[in-house]
Design a protein that fits this description.
heterodimer, A: mainly alpha, Rna Polymerase Sigma Factor, Chain: A, B: mainly alpha, elongated
Chain lengths: ~200, ~170
């Protein structure tokens, strides 16, 4: 009995298109699960480097994958999925950072003390390290926005300057010049902070 | 990153320590079970709304029925649009303003803003009698003021005198 005859007979009400749609949906979910397995850790680190809060970073990654799910039809057209995903999560965390209030340095100290690897150090040493890093991060926050973004992304060793340029939507030469400027500004600020002590 | 890992609490902030701190943060491992939580969150996401499927009886001959329904919708929309358009066109064509006829106020007064007022006559105009022969009749030499005066004193006499060549006036 052919499909049309079965439909006429009334015992088969599922058209072929529905079966194809379910197959496709299953394939999409499989592809998305593969993306989660492959890039979840990277995306989390990118999100945490800006938000500096574990729960917020995890939410941002979740939102990024939900956006991917919404645009799953265009997934085959993406050339570099890693850079594409980082760009999505980068935009999400910048948006959240813009809307959120300024984080006090004490929050950073507490969060860093929680997440920093102890490596057999005492609690006091871990707290001192967290305080030091929080001070540095406070200085980073005083950088101009463009320079700060490049500096933050350059900390990811797996990202080349071309990929950073692609994520930020600028040229590679702009990335280099901004990074140079950010380093100079940072050095000046840290020297000034050291001279005040 | 390695220097920070070996000495995570430098006493002074050095110029290169900013990048070391950023690298340290960038290299922090993801929390345990992150992927499982993400997968669970994605699988429990709200499903998008589905379009109601056609009934089985309509699905069999769905193509021509859909085409008919689409044509009917287009026809109704186009007809409604044309109706509104034509109605608006008729309403806009009436641009002639009809003014009410001007009536002169009784008692000899007229409105101050009158655009055109007919010239009033100083008195009734005497007509020539129809039966009078122009050759027999003598020329009427009476002044119009005198004729008016005679008409006012005696309208009947004035009527009779209208055709007479000579009429003795009141002494």
């Amino acid at each position: 009995m052919s499909t049309s005859q079965a439909v006429y007979a009334g015992w088969m009400e599922i058209p072929n298109s529905a079966v194809t749609g379910k197959d496709r949906q299953f394939a999409d979910e499989e592809a998305l699960a593969a993306l989660v397995t492959q890039y979840a850790s990277t995306l989390y680190r990118v999100a945490f480097s800006v938000l500096r809060n574990s729960a917020d970073a995890e939410d941002a990654v979740q939102e990024a994958f939900l956006r991917v799910l919404r645009h799953r039809d265009n997934l085959d057209e993406v050339r570099d999925q890693r850079v594409w995903l980082i760009r999505i999560v980068w935009n999400i965390v910048l948006d959240r950072k813009r809307r959120a209030r300024t984080r006090p340095e004490t929050d950073d100290v507490a969060e860093l003390a929680r997440v920093l690897p102890s490596n057999g150090l005492s609690a006091e040493q871990v707290a001192a390290a967290a305080q030091h890093h929080a001070r540095v991060l406070a200085c980073v926050e005083q950088l101009p926005l463009k320079e700060r973004r490049v500096l933050q992304l350059s900390a990811f060793e797996e990202l080349s300057s071309v990929e950073i340029a692609s994520i930020l939507g600028i040229t590679e030469s702009s990335v280099r010049s901004r990074l140079f400027r950010a380093r100079n500004l940072m050095a000046g600020m840290l020297n000034h902070a050291r001279s005040l002590r | 990153m390695n220097s920070t890992a070996q000495n995570p609490f430098p006493r002074e902030i050095e110029p290169g320590s900013a990048e070391e701190t950023l690298r340290l943060i960038a290299s922090l491992p993801a929390p345990e079970g992150l992927e499982d939580r993400l997968r669970a969150g994605l699988s429990s996401r709200p499903r998008p709304g589905r379009v109601l499927a056609w009934p089985i009886s309509l699905r069999l001959g769905g193509n021509w029925m859909r085409a008919t329904a689409a044509a009917a919708i287009v026809f109704v929309v186009a007809g409604g649009g044309w109706g509104v358009y034509s109605h608006v066109q008729q309403g806009q064509s009436a641009k002639v303003i009809v003014l009410p006829p001007r009536t002169q106020a009784p008692g000899g007064f007229s409105s101050a803003g009158a655009m055109r007022t007919p010239r009033t006559l100083s008195g009734p105009v005497l007509k020539q009698p129809a039966e009078a022969q122009p050759s027999q009749a003598k020329p009427f030499k009476k002044k119009p003021a005198q004729a008016v005066r005679s008409i006012r004193r005696s309208p009947a006499a004035a009527g009779k005198a209208a055709g007479l060549p000579a009429l003795p006036l009141a002494k």
